[in-house]
Amino acid sequence: MIQLLAPDGTRTPHPELDAVLEDAGLATPERLRGYYRDMVMIRAADLEATSLQRQGQLGLWASALGQEAAQIGAGHAAREQDYLVPTYREHGVAWARGIEPWRLLELFRGISHGGWDPNALRTHPYMIVLGSQAPHAVGYAMGLQRDGVVGTGDPGTDTSVLALFGDGASSEGEVAESFTFAASFQAPVVFYTQNNQWAISVPTQVQSRVPLAQRSRGWGIPSVRVDGNDVLAVLGAVRTALDAARAGEGPVFIEALTYRMAAHTTSDDASRYRPAAEEEEWAAKDPILRLRLHLEALGEIDEGFVTRCDEEAHDLAMQLHHHIHGMEDPDPVHMFDHAYAEPHPIVEADRADYLDYIAQFEDDEQTGERA
Amino acid sequence: MIQLLAPDGTRTPHPELDAVLEDAGLATPERLRGYYRDMVMIRAADLEATSLQRQGQLGLWASALGQEAAQIGAGHAAREQDYLVPTYREHGVAWARGIEPWRLLELFRGISHGGWDPNALRTHPYMIVLGSQAPHAVGYAMGLQRDGVVGTGDPGTDTSVLALFGDGASSEGEVAESFTFAASFQAPVVFYTQNNQWAISVPTQVQSRVPLAQRSRGWGIPSVRVDGNDVLAVLGAVRTALDAARAGEGPVFIEALTYRMAAHTTSDDASRYRPAAEEEEWAAKDPILRLRLHLEALGEIDEGFVTRCDEEAHDLAMQLHHHIHGMEDPDPVHMFDHAYAEPHPIVEADRADYLDYIAQFEDDEQTGERA
Amino acid sequence: MSSTTSSSLPIAKAITAALRDAMHADDKVLLMGEDIGPLGGVFRVTDGLHAEFGSQRVVDTPLAEAGIVGTAVGLSLRGYRPVVEIQFDGFVYPAYNQITTQVAKMHNRTSGLVTVPMVIRIPHGGGIGAVEHHSESPEALFAHTAGLRILAPATAQDAYWMTRQAIECEDPVIMLEPKRRYWVKGDVDPDHRPELSAWQAAVVRPGLDATLLAWGPSMPLALESAEAAAADGIDLEVIDARSLAPVDYPTIVESVRRTGRLLIVHEAPVLGGLGGEIAARVTEQCFYHLEAPVLRVGGYHLPYPPARMEHAYLPDLDRVLDGVDRLLEH
Amino acid sequence: MSSTTSSSLPIAKAITAALRDAMHADDKVLLMGEDIGPLGGVFRVTDGLHAEFGSQRVVDTPLAEAGIVGTAVGLSLRGYRPVVEIQFDGFVYPAYNQITTQVAKMHNRTSGLVTVPMVIRIPHGGGIGAVEHHSESPEALFAHTAGLRILAPATAQDAYWMTRQAIECEDPVIMLEPKRRYWVKGDVDPDHRPELSAWQAAVVRPGLDATLLAWGPSMPLALESAEAAAADGIDLEVIDARSLAPVDYPTIVESVRRTGRLLIVHEAPVLGGLGGEIAARVTEQCFYHLEAPVLRVGGYHLPYPPARMEHAYLPDLDRVLDGVDRLLEH
Ligand SMILES: Cc1ncc(C[n+]2csc(CCOP(=O)(O)OP(=O)(O)O)c2C)c(N)n1
Ligand SMILES: Cc1ncc(C[n+]2csc(CCOP(=O)(O)OP(=O)(O)O)c2C)c(N)n1
Ligand SMILES: [Mg+2]
Ligand SMILES: [Mg+2]
Questions:
Q1: Orientation angle between helical segments D274-286 and D249-259, nearest 10 degrees
Q2: Which candidate in A85, A258, B311, C37 could, as Cys together with A137 as Cys, close a disulfide (CB 3.0–4.6 Å)?
Q3: What is the chain C residue with the closest CA to D141?
């Protein structure tokens, strides 16, 4: 397992990844402070979302607590032109892509099935049918090959795709088929699993008795295992892999070992299936604490910065709170808007029926009767 | 690649497999002659089936020409109590299981969707949706575990499953999911691919850029690659794997390298996609010739035996010919018999409608009019 | 229901009891699915069964629906009676090939030599404020395929007994469980097998003016609508279809011949939904008795909408009564 | 059809021509599937296109249907217009999850920000003496899902133009190609876009006594039946549905209001088939014009039978005329 930062913040040199990080300017003290801030921000947003769910403002929330390094690292490893294909728990990745947290909450609140423009933000919508996004990622990468934006040598041109899925989702046949297509066409795609040890109540061992990273070797796709709570290891490994993909060297698979600190979602009760001791063990490997210890050892962080981050995070949480409390429910008539891109007579007829039906109540309100 | 018999019949020692073959009494001269006879018989049946198709007696035929060693070897490697799960081109396997060739032809003639009793013959029906049989094999193996017939140490009790699929089918997600289940539950199942180089017109390289045998390593499932035109290598490898599975050591994957000498089916035209030179190259590796050369080198075969085999094969072909020419079309009313195991009012109503409808013609025949 | 052994149970717990009793009655019955072990399933339907029967009979599987259903086929060939849980309706499609080409066809393919007695349990329907793919009603996507049976219980007693009968059936059965009503209680009498078989429809409220047909999660709405209509002087007969494949046409036809009118209510989109087939068949069999076309109230031709719009998508009291009005206007 | 550029082509070749012309017109169009490259597909529909356009635009894929459809989604997000070939109807189910939860829903999921313009070509229907899974008619299994469109051409001209229009459409389109008629010739005029859009039904034979609705591979049977009925003095109006999702109800309803009778013919099993939905809708819209219930002639509620029984399963002239008789008896 690749680790650049030990849980106590100690920095282990890693010649290959250190060079990558340095070249890319991804590990300057300023950048490190930025990752710290990012992680603090999304953790606060995440906790606020859980509390919004408890207040009835969200139908559900899938917390990414504990996975901040795995997500912020991966998100920042990508270049702007890359296309990212997340699952439904990728709040840190979304943050790194510049997607405001309230956009994520639209889905969990139940006002839309997806909250942002995938093309503008170069980030696929959150996907809920596990594994189904993996072939999309590969297909997109096949498109990049056809567009001639792979292996040109120009870093502003060469483009790749980051396909994310969980340890549980890795068992879906569609993920395996994605490996097949990616390998066959040497598509510029990096598969990235956050092995957070659990698929709801099922431990990763049920999905694989060997390290999950080994899975892609069956297709000759090289793979690495990184400490997913180590933002530098993630950054280095993902950037290396994406660069290789961009250069036309084909797909890579990365397994990031991390931990889902919260329950699966706000509907879940993790105490039914996992021991508190395990949670404590992983709490000691907290990704945010680790980076802070490292920055402290470097002398690159001070109380003022930490406090400022906490304040900003608090502000973000408040902003989120107000934003969500102020969100109006959409007029249901909009459900008819986008089933099809071109006009569709049945949908139009259904919309007309709906409007007629609604109009009855407006009439009733005037006459005071049921239609 | 494991090879015990070179194309010219030379025997290479292989301490491990030789011991397995010897222990099992699978490589006695008598047995070797038996395999030779089997291969000659099924090749004759196969050629006859092609000619029956040309005569309009079969709708289609999928020839297994060239794959005789891969199939006879695998079929005989299994013990009687094992359950075999074929695809649709497993005529040698079926033969080794004691399934008469005309039972196979029922499907290709179009009088039934499957020709034998899977339970009595411990052989799954031929399966056409590629890969779909693989999870059945794993589930059956999970049943064996629950029945307590795995790892008891009693060779008459311990049971395993042989799951067959082609190089093309190996890309189906359901095959990958089967690996996942088999690995997770350490089910007593051996996955066996006849890599006959082609999936219709698509070469194996499109399914995998690395040796296909490597595929299962992604799950930590051990694998071997054998010369599929070498009946001894196949026998030894499959028997070893099945024995390990029976002993409770979990799944194994075997890739047998062989060649589909004929076109994909009688509907296919292989000249559209593959060079004649390739066909010639593989003709030189013919599995039947190879075993004969080996037997000759051993001095364990004489002209008389060869002639007798050819005569028996000719008789079999004739028998097949007569059997098929004598086959009557089933009364279509039987199509209503087995859609459900328990009574079903819609099927009964449909059957009644059909019979009423048919009865009109019988009446018409009497009265001479259209209903 | 007057038995001394009957007790009041939520629908989810009635199914738990049915699974437990079936597992005690036949040691070939086993359960498979995602999170059905220690967690007891996301709806807790298998709660306690892993502790009671162990990992060999309550199997937490890898996360792969085709694998779950496909291995269940293999287990059934080996003499087991697997009861598979699909976590939500919207996640059944990765197993669609196995269900459509294998589960449904194995018995026919082998000319009856092999049976595939298995049950596929699917919590179905909407109205729970969920995210995408958690609120679907896919019955029509299975009812068209010969070889499958589909049951949709609406009460705790039916949930118990239909589950028992599904497990006993030699054919594969899809159980559509009324997700939104899992915690609604009802009397269950596990000691007395009801006379009405799982494959029959039930007239749950006799009436004269029109027939209202529904099933599963829509049944309470159907009954509520009948009460509301009664207040307006309209006497609706309410039928619970119970079995969706096969549908019990004799019971429905008998009712419609009497009332001359039929309204079908289901959550699935009307277009291509099961209501269309029922309407077509009933019209064929009741043509001269019908005073109005068979009408349907159901989902629009849209993907199931986000939670905060679902109230407008799902049939509700007003939409059903509107349908009744339109039916009676004829 | 009188154009000087029109020529007589088999349906398969008309589709080849449409694919070629579409690929010349728009370099974002590409083809994907099993064996569609050097072999030209098992039905030779892509014959010559690999040689003409190369491996980047005519892609022989690995053997995995979900992968094919799923990567096509990704390509379409990148601005391509993939035309996917599924080798036979019975092999579309491994891709069912992608089609139902992804292809159909991506546009809606993203509130219209993303389009998924792709075509899924499926040779469909029976009557070719094939083995299991090669003769199915799965239209109802897709028509229920909002977000999809389905076209079913019956003639070479329609095959050409409907393929062109499917490729141009911003929505995903499933093309059901009449497998059994691939080698039947007809005039194709690739230079003059017909006035009738792909989404409209066509009255292909006017008549007075009853309407006969069919599509795709059943069209020749429908026309033949009308001729035979004419010999018995029965004047049938024949409609080719052409688009199965959406169905062009105005054209059908207009006809049925005139004739008062409708017979629907399709190869899929009647139970749960598309005919049920059409019957229900037409009955709703034509109730007071109908002199008989809408009747359907189609497959029985069975898995498609072995080849030597299929003649008894498939609708044929006698079964259609029997249906017409029953319709007129009312
Ligand atoms: C095809 C499919 N099956 C089942 C589910 C239900 N489900 C949602 S999340 C989940 C567990 C996913 O685990 P993993 O992939 O490890 O991701 P994590 O939740 O740990 O981030 C399950 C079973 C689903 N969304 N899609
Ligand atoms: C799911 C599925 N997709 C497509 C097909 C059509 N098909 C039949 S055989 C075949 C090629 C199979 O190749 P392989 O698995 O290597 O077996 P082989 O024919 O070489 O024995 C294809 C594509 C099918 N039967 N099932
Ligand atoms: Mg996980
Ligand atoms: Mg092959």
A1: 60
A2: A85
A3: C141
Rounded (5°) CA angle A253-A254-A260: 135
CB B129 within 8 A of CB D91: yes
Considering every ligand atom, which ligand is closest to the CA of D130?
2
| CB < 8 Å to A172, chain B | 173, 177
- Pocket (CB within 6 angstroms of ligand 2): B 89, 128-130, 166-169, 196, 198-200, 260, 264; D 34, 63, 65, 87, 91, 94
Question: In terms of Cα–Cα distance, which of C114, C201, C113, C107 is closest to C153?
Answer: C201
Query: Which ligand approaches the C-alpha of residue C131 most closely?
Result: 1
Q: Which of residues 198-217 of B touch A (CB under 8 A)?
A: 206-210, 214-217
User: For position B360, what pLDDT does the model report?
Assistant: 86
Tokens standing for residue A120: 């503008």
CA distance readout (Å), C7 to C166, C178, C237, C319: 22, 20, 28, 34
Measured in Å, residue B87 CA sits from the centre of ligand 2 at: 9
Buried b (16+ CB within 10 A) or exposed e, C23-39: beeeebbbbbbbbbbbb
Residue of C nearest to D272 (CA): C144
Residue D305, CA distances (Å) to B355, C105, C147, D221 in order: 17, 11, 13, 20
Query: What's the rounded Cα separation, in Å, for the pair C4 and C191?
Result: 9
Q: What is the mean pLDDT of chain B?
A: 96
By the 8 A CB rule, do D19 and D190 touch? no
Q: Which pLDDT does position D58 carry in this prediction?
A: 98
- Summarised one tens digit per residue, pLDDT across range D4-63 is 578 999 999 999 999 999 999 999 999 999 999 999 999 999 999 999 999 999 999 999
- Give the CA dihedral B127, B128, B131, B134, nearest 10 degrees: -10
Instruction: Give residue A129 CA to ligand 3 midpoint distance, Å.
Output: 14
The closest CB to that of C63, out of A130, A330, A360, belongs to: A130
- Residues in C closer than 8 angstroms to D280, CB to CB, are 275-277, 279-280, 283, 294, 296
Three-state DSSP class for residue D229: helix
* Binding partners of B (≥3 Cβ pairs within 8 A): A, C, D
How many Å apart are CA D71 and CA C197, to the nearest integer? Answer: 47
In Å, how far are A38, A99, A125, A182, C255 from A78, measured between CA atoms? 15, 14, 17, 19, 65
CB contacts < 8 Å between A and B, how many?
Answer: 71
Tell me what pLDDT residue B264 has.
Answer: 98
Choose among A147, A181, A339: nearest Cβ to D71: A181
**Closest CA to ligand 2's atom 11:** B199
Question: Catalytic annotation on A273?
Answer: yes
User: Which candidate from D63, D271, D319 shows the least CB-CB separation from B202?
Assistant: D63
- For the segment D233-274, what is each residue's pLDDT rounded down to a tens digit? 999 999 999 999 999 999 999 999 999 999 999 999 999 999
Distances (CA, A) of A23 to A16, B13, D197, D228: 11, 55, 57, 81
pLDDT of residue A362: 81
Could you please report the per-residue DSSP string of C168-198? H-SS-EEEEEEGGGTT-EEEE-TTS--SS-T
Whether the Cβ atoms of residue A329 and residue A59 lie closer than 8 Å to each other: no
What letters, b where the CB count within 10 A reaches 16 and e where it falls short, cover B306-341?
A: beebeeebeebbeebbeebeeeeebebeebbebbbb
pTM equals 0.98
Per residue in D78-123, pLDDT (tens digit) is 999 999 999 999 999 999 999 999 999 999 999 999 999 999 999 9
Q: Does A136 touch chain D (CB under 8 A)?
A: yes
Nearest of B267, A370, B254 to residue C231 by alpha carbon: A370
Q: Does B185 touch chain D (CB under 8 A)?
A: no
Which residue has the CA at smallest separation from atom 19 of ligand 1?
A: A199
